[in-house]
Amino acid sequence: MNQIVQSLAQGSRDVEQMSRLMAGPVDRFPGAKAVKPPLDAAAEVKGFTILQDLRMIDLRRWYGAKGTASNSYLYGYRRLKIRREPENRDNHQFRVSVLAVSADTQVRFPTQELTPTLYAQEIGTDPRGQKMIHWTVGVDLRKVPPGDTVELIYEHISPGAFVMEGMSSNTLSFDVEANTIELTRWLLMPSGREYKSFLLLRYKTGEPDYAEKVKLTTEYLPEDREILAYKLLALQAGYTYELSWFYK
Predict the structure, then answer these.
(1) The domain spanning residue 127 has which CATH number?
(2) What is the CA 77 to chain-centroid distance, rounded?
(3) Does some domain include residue 1?
(4) Residues 160, 203 contacting (CB under 8 angstroms)
(5) pTM of this prediction?
(6) Residue 85 is part of which domain span?
(7) Whole-Å CA distances, 228 to 13, 56, 57, 91, 238
(8) Out of 29, 37, 205, 244, which residue is the most buried by the measure of CB atoms under 10 Å away?
(9) What pLDDT digit, counting tens, does each position of 166-221 carry?
């Protein structure tokens, strides 16, 4: 716990959230009611910069494909600090994607300055025939003056269909939808498992054949193999990052 506090004290404001996670996995919760997205289902990020993007993913109650819907799920927490650019006088709608794709996903919003909205759009089925949903979270920034910042926070409970499973590894990928100054990721490994090593790649979205290895700005807690955490700086929109970790 002291190691976590010391690491987070380097600049993150999320000590309380990580402390809550370390006290025990988050139980299932009912999510917000989703509505249909606007006609343009893509994320709306024009005229905005993400100053901070912090995501925590707790896999301690996720048992992979062998787990059933009732006993296997993961928890995700994300906090975004968003700046409305000074020249942005017209676009006040900001919307980003949620990692989860399962129809069984629940998303909720902790108390915050603005009131976010949850959007859901069907995107077909997975190889097992399960319905897939593109979940997005949006917020109306019309009352945020150009040049000012605001935070967007959401949590989700999901079966974890977005995590790809290998023989002794797992992989997840995420798109950078807006230029991002600072990105931090914390992953709590599945119960009873430790990672041996991990690999982070990036490529232009839709072009995985041209992937390149990413150099970390900071790696937290390298001696604690139950927690995988790192920080990146100056990420460009239009790239996909793919994280793979290999178990002992």
Answers:
(1) 2.60.40
(2) 7
(3) no
(4) no
(5) 0.90
(6) 31-247
(7) 18, 10, 10, 36, 25
(8) 37
(9) 889 999 999 999 999 999 999 999 999 999 999 999 999 999 999 999 999 888 87
